[in-house]
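Task 17 of the worksheet. Students: predict the tertiary structure of the chain below and write it out as structure tokens. Keep your answer in the requested format; marks are given for formatting as well as content.
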Amino acid sequence: MLLVASSLHELSFPKLMEVYAESNRENGEDRYPGESPDRQLALAEEGFRDYLSQVFFTTENARYFILGEAGRYVSALRLEPYEDGLLLEALETAPEFRKKGYAVALIEKTQAYLEEQGSIRLYSHVSRNNIASLRTHEKRGFRKILDYGRYIDGSINRRTVTLLYTTE
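Model answer:
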């Protein structure tokens, strides 16, 4: 099942946090080193919620795409306007569902959803060391166009590459 949400109230935040639990634990450790592990996780999740409600979902045409199975969220990604297309970001699959094709399936369903509305240009910034994510994107027709990531705010990250998928 594909869920497309354009506001925080259209999705289950607790289910979404299950998908991002590993990343939230890592972010909590980095950002709140003096706190207990439980408090680190809670603060990271609170920051995630604040970002979604105050920044992401206030951006026109920003949407969350979530792949669900058996009542759980298994994989998720965000899309928001970027240059002459959309930026695919925060692609993640819950650890127990990894290596089963869910990320590829989510991107495929997202592409099909967007293609129903016309031609598309999807960008993605992926760490050059994240071989699994690079392969996942490649399987869905993305190709490298830049040897660095140029983020929405204009900053440059040389540890990432920029990928593009287009139907034009």
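Marker's comment: The beta strands are 2-5, 63-69, 72-82, 85-93, 121-127, 143-146, 149-150, 156-157, 160-166. The CA atoms of residues 22 and 95 lie 8 Å apart.
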